Amino acid sequence: MLSNSFYELVKNFGGGRTLYHAHCPMANNNQGALWLSESMEIKNPYFGSEMLTCGSIEEQIQ
C-alpha cells in the first residue's frame, strides 16, 4: 500500500528527478507489486538475491 501511495504522490507532484516505476509480476502471491527506482536497472526488492533481476520498467516519471 505504501508503494502505491508513494507512486501516486510522485506521479502527481514529481520526484525532483527522473524515477522509474518498476513492476514484479511474481510478488504478493503472483498478484504483482511495484517499486520506484532512480535507476533503469532492475534490482528487485521483493525477491532480493533469489530473483534480483526479475521485473520490468513500466514507466519513466519525469
Shape: globular
Please mark out the parts with pLDDT under 50 across 5 or more consecutive residues, or reply none. none
Note the gap between the termini: 22 Å
Number of domains in the coordinates? Answer: 1
What is Rg?
A: 11 Å
Class based on secondary structure composition and strand pairing: alpha+beta
Q: How much of the polypeptide forms β-strand, as a percent range? A: 25-35%
**Number of contiguous helices:** 2
Strand order of the largest sheet: 2-1-3
Topology order in helix (H) and strand (E) letters: HEHEE
Instruction: Specify the oligomeric state.
Output: single chain
**What is the mean pLDDT?**
90
Biggest sheet, in brief?
3 strands, antiparallel
By DSSP, the count of extended strands is 3
Roughly what percent helix? 25-40%
Explain the layout of strands and helices.
Blueprint: H1 2-13, E1 19-24, H2 27-30, E2 33-37, E3 56-61
Antiparallel strand pairs: 1-2, 1-3
List keywords for this structure.
62 residues; alpha+beta; three-stranded antiparallel β-sheet; globular
Report on the architecture of this protein:
The protein has 62 residues and is an alpha+beta fold. It has one domain (2-61). Helix content is 26%, strand content 27%. It has two helices and three strands, in the order H-E-H-E-E. The chain has helices at 2-13, 27-30, and strands at residues 19-24, 33-37, 56-61. Strands 2-1-3 form a three-stranded antiparallel β-sheet, covered by helices on one side. It is globular, with a radius of gyration of 11 Å. It starts with a helix and ends with a strand. This is DUF3347 domain-containing protein. It comes from Flavihumibacter stibioxidans.
